[in-house]
Amino acid sequence: GQQVMQIPQYQHVQEGEDFTTYCNSSTTLSNIQWYKQRPGGHPVFLIQLVKSGEVKKQKRLTFQFGEAKKNSSLHITATQTTDVGTYFCAAFTGGGNKLTFGTGTQLKVEL
Amino acid sequence: DTEVTQTPKHLVMGMTNKKSLKCEQHMGHRAMYWYKQKAKKPPELMFVYSYEKLSINESVPSRFSPECPNSSLLNLHLHALQPEDSALYLCASSLLGQGAYGYTFGSGTRLTVV
């Protein structure tokens, strides 16, 4: 079945450094969503990207959807300890009815 | 109300027990989902309900039995589980369609099968 891979699997940064996670699919995606899951918490919806080449910003977070709609990225500028958690991309598969999560990137931020 | 409420938060059950997980939302969402998440893994889809009808079963073993009594409630009945079924069980809901506004997840039930 369709898989959505994310890299890196883990990332440790010093507070104030930037962070980027990449999401890659072998097939063209209709859209892509991003979720954040804090340690011990549940996934929380961040954003959905639909258009080829789309870029959206939420404060220090920048989301991009590739021109071919096969990849996406999430960039955090000047990380803070509140950014700690696992970031998942997610895409609809199986005819559009199943939201399948990527493998996730765990972010740790050290003071 | 913008929340999905799951009960219980923690559950320990024996392999011969029968238990139920409950999920409730009052956002008017007509699609509801069960996901299973093992430690350090992404959530995996189990079931999808649309308008209270089961539309997707991801080949889940019959020891897991979902039920949607009405548009606000979703249950997951558990029977004769195995230790490998221990995981975080997440309920989610969304507007119908491709969840353009994202899925809203509950805080989950952390299940331990002994």
Low confidence ranges of chain A: none
Largest sheet of chain A: 6 strands, mixed
| C-alpha end-to-end distance of chain A | 40 Å
Biggest contact: A-B, 25 and 23 residues
| Strand percent estimate of chain B | over 45%
| Oligomeric state of the chains in view | heterodimer
Question: Which percent range fits the helix content of chain A?
Answer: under 10%
Q: Number of helical runs of chain A?
A: 0
Distance between the termini of chain B: 36 Å
- Main β-sheet of chain B, in a few words? 7 strands, mixed
CA gyration radius of chain B, whole angstroms: 13 Å
H/E series of chain A, N to C? EEEEEEEEEEE
Tally of helical runs of chain B: 0
Shape, per Cα inertia axes of chain B: globular
- Mean pLDDT rating of chain B: 95
Describe this protein's structure.
The complex is a heterodimer of chains A (111) and B (114). With 111 residues, chain A is mainly beta. Chain A has strands at 4-7, 10-14, 19-25, 32-37, 43-49, 55-58, 61-65, 71-76, 85-93, 98-101, 105-110. In chain A, strands 2, 4, 5, 9, 10 and 11 form a 6-stranded mixed β-sheet that branches. The termini of chain A are far apart. Chain B has strands spanning 4-7, 10-13, 18-25, 31-37, 44-50, 53-57, 64-70, 73-79, 87-94, 104-105, 109-113. In chain B, the strands form 2 sheets. In chain B, strands 2, 4, 5, 6, 9, 10 and 11 form a 7-stranded mixed β-sheet that branches. Chain B has a 4-stranded antiparallel β-sheet with strand order 1-3-8-7, with no helix packed on it. Chain B is mostly beta strands and 114 residues long. Chain B contains no helices and 11 strands. The chains are: A mainly beta (111), B mainly beta (114). Chains A and B meet through strand 5 and strand 10 of A and strand 5 and strand 10 of B.
